[in-house]
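hiii, so i know i said id send this last week but things got crazy w the move. better late than never?? heres the sequnce for the chain we talked about at the cafe, plus the structure i predicted for it. fair warning i was half asleep when i ran it
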Amino acid sequence: MNKTDLDNSRSMPLLVLVVPCYNEEEVIEKSAQVLSDKIRRLVADGMVAKKSRILFVDDGSRDDTFRIISDLCRKDDIFCVVKLAGNSGHQNAILAGMMTAKDTADIVVTIDADLQQDIEALDDFITKYKDGCEVVYGVRNDRNSDGWMKKTTASIYYKLMRALGSAVIPNHADYRLISSKALKALSGYSEVNMFLRGLIPTMGFRSDIVYFDVKEREAGTSKYTLRKMFTLAMDGITSFSTRPLHIIGASGVIVVFLGLILCIVSLVDWINGKNVPGYTTLLIVMLVATGAILLSLGVIGEYIAKIYMETKRRPHYIIDSVIWRDPAKDDENG
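okay and structure toks below
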């Protein structure tokens, strides 16, 4: 790409919206309409190229999500879809969409199918890209729409991640713009345990933040269960920090030191002829030590499981089918 082409792609980028979907039949048509209207407004305002697209990624839905999207693709060439062979998970579905679009798009924006993330923030995303940013993160203004439990656990999670040395951005949930330059760099990462929220900030490209308000879902319910959120949290912690292992080692040293002190105290009492009941003390020590050992083994087990999965080198996802019209070819065909 010469300098003129580079300048054109920066001033009038070809945008691909990547929308991961899992059992979203209740909301997908409404979301598709809102997204296509927004793309057309951006084109009309000269913000993005006229061949910009919306790419849905069906993550192994068991309802009519794929059928609905396929019908949309036949009716309007602004829509494309990648169907994964099975449920690969939210992070892998996003990755599949980005990797499918990377050779065509100048910029990719990932957004959830429920459109709780404010689509109007796209203007600010694109403006920051034109100002030179390669990555732009969407960060929610507050968590007032969440329940007490989710709000509290999210706050604890982000504080824990930062304390463990992760570069994760608080209140950022995969609503982001990423340029083709950054996408090509991302494609070089081969790790199986892909945690995009922590990985992308470590790449080092110029970035910025756009703040937005979260809306209520138009229909349906969230498919992000407590189990999935816990799995994502564990992936984030174990994929980007070895500090838990260091904490275990330090804790072990402290426990051994305290144990030696207790042994000395007990020996002195025995020499002085004092009766040492010991039952309660022994029980407490055994329970605390056993709990610490089991917790430590659990943390170590998580890291071993990560190593086990990495050695298998399994693909992040398997594509079953694709409905895609290449904008570049469309241009060539007039």
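btw DSSP finds twelve helices and eight strands in the chain. thought thatd interest u
miss u guys!!
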